[in-house]
Design brief:
With about 150 residues, this protein is α+β, with helices and mostly antiparallel strands. The chain is about 15% helix and about 45% strand. The protein has a single domain, classed as Lipocalin.
Length: about 150
């Protein structure tokens, strides 16, 4: 290997090292209880306030859905095991019509190159029931919420 190739390899290794240490950054969370969010969750059902039972679930819809949140602020959704959505997310304190007191809100943003990358595309309020149930309240006027179980 000549000196020119050695220099290129050294530069590539240095740049890769810098990228690996600066690009991957844990998102900040306003409450340590939210640490439970960072794992994979399996969709159980979707409900609406005022309904008398689930309005959708894997059996009624004919597919399964799994979601995952990682500490780098990336949300992924899988339909029948195949990835179908990927967004950046942040978590902030806020209010919700569905949660008494302080609510913790997930704000989803598009990944990739788009014109308005800082504008949230949707938001959900986070609620936990024990350590293995996640409820995501969709912050719109329809009053839907989705229930997920922690994957083991």
């Amino acid at each position: 290997m000549n000196i020119r190739h050695q220099k290129l390899w050294i530069i590539a290794i240095v740049l890769l090292s810098i990228c690996m240490t600066t690009c991957r950054k844990d998102i900040s969370i306003p409450n340590q209880e939210l640490d439970k969010l960072f794992c994979s969750w399996e969709w159980v059902e979707t409900n609406a306030y005022g309904s008398f039972g689930p309005i959708a679930n894997p059996a009624s819809e004919g597919y399964s859905r799994t979601i995952e949140f990682d500490r780098n602020g990336i949300y992924r959704s899988y339909k029948d095991g195949k990835k179908d959505e990927k967004y950046k997310f942040t978590i902030s304190e806020g209010t919700s019509n569905y949660i008494i007191g302080t609510a913790y809100i997930i704000n989803y943003k598009r990944t990739g190159i788009v014109f308005n990358n800082d504008s949230p595309i949707s938001s959900q309020a986070i609620q936990f029931k024990g350590s293995d149930t996640l409820i995501l309240h969709i912050l719109d006027y329809d009053g839907y919420y989705r229930i997920y179980k922690r994957q083991k």
